Amino acid sequence: MSKTVFFSNSPTASGQHTLLRRLGTIASFAMLALALSQPAAAQRQVLDKVAAIVDEGVVLQSELDLRLEEIRDQSQAGGRPLPPAAELQSQVLETLIVENLQMQMAERMGIRYDDDTVNSVMQSLAEQNSISFDDYVNTLEAAGRYLSTREQIRKELSLRDLQRGIVNRRISVTSQEIDNFLNSESGRLSMAPDYFVDQTLIPVAENDSADVVRAKEQFAQQMAEAVRNGTDFAQARAAAQSGAASNPPTSYQVSGGELGWRKTEQLPTLFVDLVPTMQRGDVMGPVRSPSGFHLIKLVDVRGGVTSLVNQSRVRHILITPNEIRTEDQAKELIDSLYARISGGEDFAGIARQISDDSASVVAGGDMGWANDRGGMPADFAAVVNQLEVNELSEPFRTSYGWHIAQVQERRETDMTRESSRQQAEGQLRARKFDVELQNWLIEIREQAYVKILL
To answer: What domains sit in the chain, N to C, each tagged with a CATH number?
Structure first.
């Protein structure tokens, strides 16, 4: 992907799935053409006109007509009523005007996606429609919408980035708001963990004899053991129904399946006290209930869990090639420093005198505590995470230059509180995003020069 990034990846109200849904509606800019086959006097035939002037851009009549056509098609397919034609046209034109304003801003800021990214999105759209990429392209070409679809995808991606950057800068979430949210009933419910549970039931009937009940319990135990040893739960259920899961082979009616993502209070009563005690991948059971014997597997957990993070305190010396130091000279210098430190000279002293890292040079190369994952540049972390405490790395190259690094300490830090507050801030930002987006769109529309020419 080739684009200029101006904004941070803060939470937004529109993610990739939302983007793909929006791309179901495709708009295009029509072209002006010459009727070359006609006599010279008739060659200058206008096939398009301007519907509105928008600051330094225009909305073409063809854009408006195509968007109206798409909306009418969707309305007819979904059985939804539309407002009167004049009102609908006014609403759609206003939408295109605001989109045009945003695209002018995106262009000035250098936000534009390359063809590879557009192809990736089109591949996702093809998969959503259960067809191959080539078939999807052929369908668009047959409808005369291949190029307009590509440009609309590029447009939607640019609008998403523009909105994400500008609107999130306008949103502030205070510490007091985070505290209030975490202490509220809705906040506690929202921040509670979600569990993805798979379960199987071997039913026990009221008229089952004691021997049959014992046999079903043994059968459930065998099935649980198979799952713990790596058998897929769905495959284990199928094997149970076929009789292949027991020895000797026995066939039982088996039911169950994935419950999907659920909060604790949304789980079956029998599971409420059990699931929160399980670790991801655990299989519990058989658990007896009036219905029979249950096997419970915790497939995954998200949110609301203790966040333990491995951190390292690292110091380093950085030597960068520059206008007066070639790559070979930088390598020669870092090798000489490595030899001096290995020979007993003080790491911190050399770092203060020579290191090119302005952020750590005063501290003798000490970079402070950083998360092993995500807290350091990936190429730097790849080397540092392999070091033992107090072990001196050999000189190594990253995108920043040549380094010598040493891990001074390691620790495991409970980041649960920080993680919870980050999640809470993200949810609060998401709640504010749509409102602030509409406020911003109203502002840019009011400040723009717009002349409607219909």
So the answer is: 1-191+415-454 (1.10.4030.10), 193-302 (3.10.50.40), 309-414 (3.10.50.40)
